[in-house]
Write a structure and sequence with these properties.
It is a single chain. The chain has one helix and three strands. The chain is of the alpha+beta class. The protein has one domain. A three-stranded antiparallel beta sheet has the order 1-2-3, with helices on one face. The longest helix is centred in the middle third of the chain and has 24 residues. The radius of gyration is 20 Å and the shape is elongated. The N and C termini lie far apart (about 50 Å).
């Protein structure tokens, strides 16, 4: 699970971190929360699509020797 942190670094300057990596620089806390929510949704969708994608089968072996 991703750990999110929103930090006010100066007046009207907010940083959003996901697992200790900066993912957004925002002008207010509301925008920071929105960035966090969107990032979380993108990660959830990508994990779900990876879970439902068909497994690739190895190439068929041919006997010719």
């Amino acid at each position: 699970m991703t750990e999110y942190v929103i930090t006010e670094v100066a007046h009207h300057q907010w940083l959003v971190f996901a697992d200790r990596q900066s993912i957004a620089f925002c002008a207010d806390e509301k925008a920071a929360v929105k960035a966090m929510t969107e990032h979380s949704a993108r990660n959830r969708r990508s994990r779900e699509s990876a879970d439902t994608s068909p497994q690739q089968n190895p190439p068929a072996r041919t006997s010719g020797l």
